[in-house]
Amino acid sequence: MKPTTFYIGIDGGGTKCRARLRAAAPSGVTGDGALLGEGVGGSANIRLGLDLIWTHILDAIDGALAQAHLTRAIFSDTSLGLGLAGITTGADCERTIAAGPRFAFANAATDAHAACLGAFSGRDGAIMITGTGSAGYAWVGGRGHAVGGWGFEVNDDASAAVLGREAIRAALHGFDGLAPHTAFTRAIMAHFGGHPSDVVKWVTTARPGDYGTLAPMIMSHTADGDLIAVGIVERAAQDLGKYLARLNEIGAPKICLVGGMADVLTPWLAPWTRSVLAVPEHDAIEGAILLAHGAPNGMAVEAVMS
């Protein structure tokens, strides 16, 4: 690829996307370019539709451009790296790039791959994302290995969305007398209006991010020692531990726990996990900027079979 004057990295998750604009590195070393601006947009999970997510991506880019006193006119001299939730195949990468405006160069990958590139500056390692959704990903020996991350409906263990779903399930069980009805489950029911019909109405249009908004309430009642809330968090931490063990087994020497739920769930993890956990060197946006510089996009990614 031909070097460009500007580099944009996008970290797009289920709740929001973040953009970072850097100048070309004078030293020629990836990541040394001056920071020119940053911006934030809405969800960039491609499952929501490419037209919608590109609106959000461009909102974020516009915010970064505004800080730099630049416009979209620079796109023809800009390399773009996209790390987006919902991407699972090389075909997803191609159609996502094709749906957007033209840049001098564009590269796309899963949000997990971008986060892993950033966390280890492109070296071998693994990340476990636990935010609105969840996904494990290892970059070992030039190959990507995905563990989980197959969507809220069937997977996304130890994510804010699944915690929210389990909280609602527990609240309905409590209401029906199938399980204890605690201060926590009563608070969840009250949040929706107090009756299961209110819950049913809400879930009809709710998205994973909506379920995830219940996470603070869950953690608040967990801190109070509510047995139902504590049980939900303990199960999430156990699930998270299974993913960490699998990523280490694949060959990742260290694993970075990232995402909005990472700090929340870390204290609940088993003691053995401390030996494999590491602090990310850089964030996922820097991983996306590595993609903009031509780093491998991890395709084809190996889905790790049990």
Automatic annotation (TrEMBL):
Record InterPro entries: ATPase_BadF, ATPase_NBD, Euk-type_GlcNAc_Kinase
One Gene Ontology MF term: kinase activity
Domain ATPase BadF/BadG/BcrA/BcrD type: 8-292
SUPFAM superfamilies given in the database record: Actin-like ATPase domain
Keywords noted in UniProt: Kinase, Transferase
Name of the protein in its database record: N-acetylglucosamine kinase
